[in-house]
Amino acid sequence: MFVLRRACLFALVISVAAACAAGAGRKPESPAPASRLYLLALLRRGTAWTPERNAHTDSIQAGHLANIRRMFEAGEMYAAGPFGDDTPLRGLFVLDTDSTGRVPALLKDDPAIASKRLRADLHRWYGPEGLSDEYRARAETGARDSMVSYSFVLLHRGPRWTANVASGVKKVLRDHAKHLDELRRDGKLIAAGPIEGMGELRGVLVFSTDTLATRRLVSQDPAVKAGRFVPEIHPWWTAVGVIPGH
Question: Which letter does DSSP use for residue 130 in this model?
Fold first, then answer.
């Protein structure tokens, strides 16, 4: 579990149009005007991960936190944050990327990744411009960090997923988008965005509700009901100001 320090109090946010099922190698169908491409690193337990704490693991953790600060100060990192449950998924980074999808050297050199305590699964996704801008502005005023917990939903390919967007699939996606729009208007869904390409992970949703309520809301999604998506839900922590408007 990450130690909650200022440099790692940023979490993933996504604010892109609701069609989380972009086709093979294509840009997602309708990204929001204020979106931009990021590199999302999902941090999972590596082959050398262990729950025990000792001088060696403490040293790795200290170097990991220092590297987070370096990435943020170098402008390579826009967000980072830990998950609040005990699963192989430990946390995430939101990093800068260019058209080649390069991996910042500071990520490869992170002590937790280099030591294989963690591994980083990388995805290209569309998120909001201004990520962490409000947090930075708060920090400049000397305001203390204020933590908040959200629900983080990974949308995986379901048993009925297909890259062929036939008329029936288009209807499911329209109903999916309508459902997400309704949740946004209610203030329950605070961000949503697609993963680029045609990998197993298709999109991410971020809810202001707890995981129990989020599970109920996601189960009502027409695309989930249709078997196109299968949700994976985690509680996660971030600082106020990381998500624009939140």
Answer: T
